[in-house]
Amino acid sequence: MQEKGTISIHTENIFPIIKKFLYSDNEIFLRELVSNSVDATQKMKRLATLGQYTGDLGDTTVEVSFDKEKKTITISDRGLGMTAEEIKKYINQIAFSGAAEFVEKFKDAKDANEIIGKFGLGFYSAFMVAHTVEINSLSYQEGAESAKWICDGSTQFEISEGTRTERGTEVILHINEESEEFLDKWKLQGILDKYCKFLPVPIKFGTKTDSVEDGKDEEGKTKYKSVESDNIINTTSPIWTKSPNELTDEDYLSFYKELYPMSEDPLFWIHLNVDYPFNLTGVLYFPKVKNEFELQKNKIKLFSRQVFITDEVKDIVPEFLMLLHGVIDSPDIPLNVSRSFLQADSNVKKINNYITKKVADKLGELYKKDRKGYEEKWNDIGLFVKYGMISEDKFYEKGKDFALVKNTRGEFFTIEEYKEKVKPTQTDKDEQTIFLYATDTDKQDSFIQSANKKDYDVLVMDSPIDSHFIQQLEQKLEKTSLKRVDADVADKLINKEESFANVLTEEQSTKVKEVFEKALDNKSFSVEVEGLNPDELPVTITMEEFMRRMKDMAQTGGGMGFYGQLPDHYKVAINGNHKVVDKILKAENEEDQTRLAKQAVDLAMLSQGMLKGKDLTEFVRRSVEMI
Q1: Quick one: fold of 403-493?
Q2: How many C-beta atoms surround the C-beta of residue 202 within 10 A?
Q3: What DSSP designation does 500 have?
Q4: What own/partner pairs with CB < 8 Å and gap ≥ 24 does 148-152 have?
């Protein structure tokens, strides 16, 4: 049997186009060919299960091997195999149906994924690395003859009698000069580990040497010997293919360590398993989150029937859950034939919604079941919850029942609990309930203490997205606003129309203002003399709540970059009722007045970490002189 022919195609430009546009992703050739072998093996097992094949299945391991001298890579299986007619049908025709349209449409394309995806070119990815490809196959069908197909990367092929004597297929790639990097054990092992680590059929790649115990020596010490065995690169039944009731906590933790060897143990996990209206399995882990958002992302791996596809899952997983780790496997996520590019589809949105709901249900369950344990995890969980509430209204509606806020005393409250707590003492003259918050408890300690003296409670809002979360709470909560604790002096944080009379005359107030303006000598500071509690600080430096909040948001990329570029402007509140002000007015000369005022201002700046460099050095020197 021998036949020559031409692949069903109307142009000779097809292979150059494949090579040109797929070269940047050329390692997928191995994934495609191994996946094809696994598919053929699984179909063979299915036929045996159905009784349509009664022979001995034998060893169904798929084997990958290479020969550096001959410059070949071989993928061999004991699956269905193919007859000569099936090779012509599946390899020559189906892959290139509409090929003329393909060439015309994509001759100027730049996206490799788009090209592979349109016309079933998975097998032909082999030509990215090979100048010639051989197929040697023997069908499982009774009486079938072995067939061999060979193609040199042109549109010409040749089919002849094959040499295979056992059921299955082997694909031999004759590697081209540009791709000889793939004729390396560790390179191939790396690709197999990346794409094929969880395929459902054993994949053998050479052998490995293990050290095993071999009795005791004369001194009673354990002896070891080297044993060579098949190097099976994959786990055929990963945990996401099993039922949750088959698994222990140790199974989940062990799998997490397999995926992320250098990571701390996760906080908890969610096992996904749905078969209608789409198929989806997987395990998502909540990691201990650091503040570096981007370093945490892209840790969810997408599989399709246990074949690794990508870790770019932004369309499937909601943006706020991109910080999760784990795996998702779904045959219903629409991929192109290269299995590396997500396509728009209604199922993607359904899956996205399902994952959001599962996460919300899990968090609500944890909160109700063990609130204390939930509070202990809140520093890590909180980032996900707040991010989700900001991103999606549906998640906000669920999340508001288990989202927590924490005050400076370390106490936790739900949002509604907190509102009820502070309403009696922190409601202003307009019936607005004011939530006070700190972004840096050390830096803002003096302001926190001043607020506490008035029986005000202060929240800690120091996560990277809290500036956005604050905005959302104000939009969602009725008659509620939030104000940073250092946005004004304590007496004016919550306007209750209560005030202390200023003991200074108008003339004295003008004089004090002039002295402090001279001491500051800075247009970024505006001075006001006010009647405040005598027990408060003599000088308080604040920034208006609106401007400070916009600057906070600008730092976290909230689209407020304009405000981040504006120069800082501060309000300097002089407590006219403080004894230091009286001392300044009674100073013997203008120089002493300015010196005392400068000292009081520097103390206020020091308390906020604003005193640096030469100003700090001068403050220390002046303080020593004044002792």
Answers
A1: Rossmann fold (3.40.50)
A2: 18
A3: P
A4: 149/87, 149/91, 151/7
Provide the CATH number for the domain formed by 239-369 in this structure.
3.30.230.80
CATH code given to domain 506-551+563-626: 1.20.120.790
Q: What is the pTM of this model?
A: 0.72
Tell whether 77 is in a known binding site. yes
Q: Is the pLDDT of residue 541 over 90?
A: no
| Rg over CA atoms, the chain | 35
Q: Is 36 within any annotated ligand binding site?
A: yes
Write down the residue that tokens 């049908």 correspond to: 89
- Tell me the two tokens of residue 228: 């060579």
User: Is 607 among the annotated ligand-binding positions?
Assistant: no
Please name which of 606, 490, 472, 610 lies closest in space to residue 622, comparing C-alpha atoms. 606
N- to C-terminal Cα distance for the chain? 108
Please state, in angstroms and rounded to a whole number, the distance separating the CA atoms of residues 326 and 269.
9
Which amino acid, residue 25?
D
Q: HSE of 113 in the Cβ direction (CA atoms, 13 Å)?
A: 9
- Residue 284's pLDDT is what? 94
Q: Is 407 annotated among the ligand-binding residues?
A: no
- 9, containing H or E segment: none
The DSSP bridge pattern shows strands 280-286 and 268-274 to be antiparallel
SS (H, E, C) 254-284: HHHHHHCCCCCCCCEEEEEEECCCCCEEEEE
Please check whether residue 482 is in contact with residue 470, taking contact to mean a CB–CB distance below 8 angstroms.
Answer: yes
Residue pLDDT, tens place only, 495-536: 887 667 778 888 888 888 888 888 887 777 888 888 888 888
Q: What is the pLDDT of residue 567?
A: 66
Give mean pLDDT, residues 66-85: 95
Longest CA–CA separation in the chain, Å: 118
Three-class DSSP category at 412: strand
Beta bridge partners of 135: 149, 171
Say if residues 83 and 145 touch (Cβ distance below 8 Å): yes
The span from the CA of 214 to the CA of 226, in Å, is 9
Q: Which of 68, 52, 77 is nearest to 170 (CA)?
A: 77
How is 558-593 classified by DSSP, letter by letter?
Answer: SS-HHHHHSPP-EEEEEETTSHHHHHHHT-SSHHHH
pLDDT band at 296 (very low <50, low <70, confident <90, very high): low
Average pLDDT, stretch 89-117?
49
- Say if residue 108 carries a ligand binding annotation: no
Q: Write down the mean pLDDT value for the chain.
A: 83
With 0-12 / 13-18 / 19 or more C-beta atoms within 10 angstroms meaning exposed / middle / buried, residue 269 is buried
> Residue 8 phi/psi, 5° resolution?
-65, 85
Q: How far apart are CA 536 and CA 577, in angstroms?
A: 9
Q: Where are the domains of the chain?
A: 2-205, 239-369, 403-493, 506-551+563-626
pLDDT surpassing 70 at residue 113:
no
Q: Which CATH architecture has domain 2-205?
A: 2-Layer Sandwich (3.30)
Can you tell me whether residue 544 is helix, strand or coil? coil
Neighbouring residues of 462: CB distance < 8 A, sequence distance ≥ 6? 438, 439, 440, 441
How would you label 364-394 residue by residue, b for 16+ Cβ within 10 Å and e otherwise?
A: eebbeeeeeebbeebebbbbbbbbbbbbbee
Parallel, antiparallel, or unpaired for β 300-304 and 156-161? Answer: unpaired
